[in-house]
């Protein structure tokens, strides 16, 4: 007698196989989140400080700083980013592949970081900001996540596209009321714009493309296309 997997478990297994980038990255964030929660507080503080994408760290080791800063989710295992991350990146990866999803994420993470920190460096250089502005705690996956969410909106039918973008805007506004940081909020806005700029790229390489009409027949809000994605 051969035992078969329950239908829900079988569907979950197939879904996870299709999103290796999202699955692996989520496990990394869960690991660092657990360490941030359970590890020695002093060590955790030092690691987060060393991972900060401030001007000081970017000027000394830019590539390493950009990499390690994206290994943490602000708030650790209780972070809302850990809920949104697999949902957003998983949906995008299923439609454009892992390599392209990683590309959109990195574009948002890197560009939004540089476009917020370089003006700080310039302002310090001309004396408009104190030297202490070169060192600040700034880390996490929010820029890349927001860019991916905005890029995913470009694959939705128009009605759902604007609902998603509006939801992102409301979430960012609510977050700013809890913990307002001008540079971070500016970075979030830039990441959203970067994701929108990626619309032609994700549409060109997606398994599903947005329909010309807001059709309810599009499965899950996505319109089907016979075009192969060529994703990895």
TrEMBL record:
The chain crosses the membrane at residues 21-38, 70-92, 104-127, 139-157, 162-180, 186-202. InterPro entries: Rhomboid_2. Residues 211-232 are annotated as: Disordered. Keywords: Membrane, Transmembrane, Transmembrane helix. Coiled coil: none annotated. The keyword Transit peptide does not apply. This is Uncharacterized protein. The lineage of its organism: Bacteria, Bacillati, Actinomycetota, Actinomycetes, Kitasatosporales.
């Amino acid at each position: 007698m051969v035992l078969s997997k329950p239908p829900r478990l079988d569907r979950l297994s197939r879904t996870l196989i299709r999103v290796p980038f999202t699955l692996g990255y989520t496990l990394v964030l869960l690991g660092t989140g657990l360490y941030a929660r359970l590890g020695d507080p002093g060590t955790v503080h030092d690691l987060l400080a060393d991972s900060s994408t401030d001007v000081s760290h970017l000027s000394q080791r830019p590539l390493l700083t950009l990499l390690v800063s994206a290994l943490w989710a602000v708030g650790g295992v209780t972070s809302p980013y850990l809920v949104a991350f697999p949902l957003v990146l998983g949906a995008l990866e299923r439609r454009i592949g892992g390599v392209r999803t990683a590309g959109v994420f990195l574009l948002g993470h890197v560009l939004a970081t540089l476009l917020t920190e370089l003006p700080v460096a310039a302002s310090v250089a001309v004396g408009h900001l104190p030297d202490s502005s070169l060192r600040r705690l700034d880390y996490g996956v929010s820029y890349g996540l927001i860019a991916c969410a905005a890029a995913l909106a470009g694959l939705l039918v128009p009605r759902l596209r604007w609902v998603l973008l509006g939801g992102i805007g409301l979430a960012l506004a609510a977050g700013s009321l809890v913990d307002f940081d001008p540079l971070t909020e500016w970075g979030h806005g830039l990441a959203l714009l970067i994701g929108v700029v990626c619309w032609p790229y994700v549409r060109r390489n997606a398994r599903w493309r947005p329909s010309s009409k807001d059709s309810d027949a599009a499965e899950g809000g996505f319109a089907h296309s016979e075009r192969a994605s060529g994703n990895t």
